[in-house]
Amino acid sequence: MTKPTIIPFGPQHPVFPEPIHLDLVVEDEKVIQGIPSIGFIHRGLERLVEVKDFQEYVYVAERICGICSFIHGMSYCQAVEQVMNITITERAAYLRVIWSELSRIHSHLLWLGLFADGFGFESLFMQSWRIREKILDIIEATTGGRVIFGSCKVGGVRRDITNDALKSIVDQLLAYQKEIHEISAVFTKDKTVQSRLVDVGVLSETDAIQWGAVGPTARASGVAEDQRSSGYAAYGQLEFAPIVEQAGDSHARTVVRLKELDQSIDLIRQAVSKMPEGTIDVKVTGFPTGECFIRTEQPRGEVVYYLKANGTKFLQRLRVRTPTFANIPPLLKMLPGCSLSDVPILVLTIDPCISCTER
Amino acid sequence: MSEDLNIDQLQEITRTKFDEGYRLVQIGCTTISTEQFEMNYSFNRVDQFINYQTKISKEVSIPSISNIYPNAFLYENEIHDLFGIQFPGLAIDFNGHFYKTAIPNPFRGDQK
After folding, report:
1. Which end of chain B lies in a sparser environment, N or C, as judged by fewer CB atoms within 10 Å?
2. Each residue's pLDDT tens digit, A328-355
3. Which of the listed CATH numbers 1.10.357.10, 1.10.1140.10, 1.10.645.10, 3.40.30.10 matches domain A5-357?
4. Which residues of A touch B106 (CB under 8 A)?
């Protein structure tokens, strides 16, 4: 029997956009165990609520992540609105859905590109990011920003989108959908891609629950859990069912994200067709008191916001449990038995966002 | 919103939730005074979200639940590094090196 060797993997690695470290216990080329290390860039943003006005903090919340920034801002606003008993207008709720889904589309396309780059398929990486640029152009046209666009505020949203612009967005997305299907076919049918993904890093449904997996990582293992089902913002008025795969391997996690691209486009189409007229914000008076948990669905999975307020303009506590933080333990369950060369790809299949994790 | 938790029953309640198929959503800590922390343990099964809450002295150690939920070790190491709470029985103990912070236990509330 070969003597186990410990190989330090990361925090700087060609396929990792952000720093995460794994101590890999290997026998020959086979991984026996992985032990993670994070915390290289921890920022302590949660404590800033103690010195930032609760309405201003939404700018900080959006900067927890550079990819799913809008949903962070929205989740924070939802938490404040819940403890202050604020009901936002219907139009604001629908606009939140549209920007959330645009964020999801661009995040998934970003991931598909990084993933393709990870297994050395450069042209697929470029095609994914080429389409993503067009989604960012839509976000820029509607908000003025591309990734962090400051459109959410406590009590509603900051900007409206004209009905003509909304129809144009749907037309553009339907055109881009054809291009997405072209790259999807490569991800799902190309033999070289399949050889890197099928039956690699299998996570069973039971393990996904016991190890706390969320988002596409959990849904690829048969866990039909998606916080959009709870109906927050305007999701309750749209037809929606979580996308679930059963195989639990790297390929299934890719397929879930590919199908979610179609689903997001459909949700935007539904939201535009049902978009109510009216104002986009309500006046916010007073200071928050109380505590609440808010759970929303980010591209990487469930995010949990816990907020505690004591009636001043500064919150007492804000805690953010990000999806990548929840998906690191399931990754440790996927690693044993895989080849050393599969580790970078496996880590990417949880779509790690260390910026969120190190909030 | 939350159910009260007696910290002596933490292992028993956690074991019950695990056996019933609940997922450990998060473990959280809040500094509520110079003497006390407030702990939150959240579980979820399909659309049932349950949170258990308890107040503890800052000097009390809490038995780790990583022997039941394997993902608990991340939350407990995080709380250990940010708040200084000890979790005897941690499955993977980073001994205070989980987060690289400029000062020890920055969320403990002893310093501004």
Report:
1. C
2. 999 999 999 999 999 999 999 998 888 8
3. 1.10.645.10
4. 44, 47
